[in-house]
Please model this.
Amino acid sequence: MRWRPSRRASGACAGRRDVRRRTRASRAVAHACVDTIRRMTRPTTAPVRPSLLAAILAVLCALGTGSRAHAQGAIGVATSITVQQFMEDLANYGTWTPDRTWGWTWQPRGVLPNWRPYMQGEWQVAEGFGLYWHSYEAFGWAVYHYGRWMWQDHRGWIWIPDKTWGPGYVNWAYGEGYVAWTPMAPTGPGPQGIVNGQCKNPPWQWLIVPQPSLLTGSVWQWAIPSARNVNILPHLKQSTVFSGVSDYSIPKDMLLAISGSGDPAQVVSFQMTPLAVTQGNNRGVILAYAPVLTGGAQPLSQGFKRAMPTPPHAPPPPSMPKPPLPPTWRPVAPSQGMTEQQGEARRDQMLAVYRHGEAQRVALAQSFDPYAPPISTWNASNAPQWKVNEDAELSAEDQRQAALQRTGAYGGSPYAAPQQPQSFEAPQGK
Model:
């Protein structure tokens, strides 16, 4: 599989210094323009040339809009890892599968019903990068900032890897008091591009939340039932605007209104390890992990194999003896989890609970529609058609989940006993 090389700039600090230099230069030019206008407005016998006055006004207008424009961010080079290491890290949380069309594809293991990308986390505003997705999942630093996601009927959501880091690759829509996003689809095998403007993802693949809830934590808790997307999404305006890897799809005025307490933009600090990324908001600083990916992937024909560990240069130091337990304490043997059959039964139970919960949420929303219309064009005459559409979406969602359950997508039940991951593949003949 081909991997797209990524270029990195000198760092986030250099980007902020560049913004401050441009700001000082803009102020100097503004003062010069004001002085010029003052001299031109004094009584004089020479007529003022309209072309010169128009040019000065154009400069002032550009400076006025520049204060509201976004500054381009710079990705700091904190560390680099090989593609092999990248794949091994993700193998701890999912499964690598070779695909004839897309090359290596990855899928998480043991997720709950109706799992989807860009759901378990929150949106933050990053200085120089626009909207940044902070994931609560252990593998989120990789699969939500590199590559693209796509849906396959027999497998569910699969991830197509790529080498270019970004704050979050999604398509956006907004209007009628809602904001919606959906995973950006791959542009084709090999290096991935940006899909600006319209996208063709069906309504059920979108996550729609009320506009004031966009920047809240655990944003999926505010999402409307996915069965209602078929009626609401056609009334939203799709708008995806990427500049490089920076996402400026949502207008800045809207983000300021949602924040309600000044500019929500935060500085991005690139870390040396993904362990710090899960801390989230660290006093107004977004912690990100964007390693440069080097090397290439393994051939598809050989299957995914872990690399042999590097022998240590010196023996590890002796471990310290553990302190004795208090007399009243007794060690407890670790639990081995459920059996595979118990896990399957638990998954069926959770799927039934999810189906019942979604149906109840849709029915509750429909009962409130006459008192709080979901959109401005809703009325009692189109309410029956809305109900027909949403009931059909509920039935289609049940069929999709049942099909994934039959094919064993996402590695089976999340409640099954965990498997011991291999540290490396043993040599043949031993």
